[in-house]
Automatic annotation (TrEMBL):
PANTHER family: CONSERVED WITHIN P. AEROPHILUM, PEROXIREDOXIN FAMILY PROTEIN. Pfam families: DsrE. This is Sulfur reduction protein DsrE. It comes from Thioalkalivibrio halophilus.
Amino acid sequence: MADLDDDYYLDNDEQTVVFVMTSGPSTPGRCATPFYLGAVMASMDVDVYIFFTMEGVKLMEQGVAENLRAMEGGKLISEFIQDAKRAGVRLHVCQPALPGYKIDASSDLVAEVDEVNRASELADLILRSDKTITF
C-alpha cells in the first residue's frame, strides 16, 4: 500500500459545520442522520451546530422526539439527540419559527437545547462555518 502524504489527513481543529434542520415529524426518515453525522464529526474535534428552523423546531419540542423513529424498529430520535449532545453537538432553535408551531421557548423545549436564536444567529453561523449542510 502506498504511503499517504501527511497533508492528506486533515486537522479538524477549528473546523466548523452547521446543519440547518428544516425536516421534522412529517418526514421522520430525514430526522436521525443530522444527529448521527453531527455526533461523528464532533467526535473528530469538529465544532458542530444544528440549527432547527421551519418544521425542524418540532423535534426540539418536549414529547416529540421521544415518540419518533426514522425507520420502523430503529432508535428513537431522542436517543440520537442525546448521543449528539454527549459528543458535543450544540443545538440552536429558531425563535421566529416557534409561534407558528405554538411552541413556547420558556416551557416547551427539551433540555438538550443550547440556545434559542433569531435568524441573524443562523446567518452568522453559516458565514463562520467551513461547511453548511441542510436536511
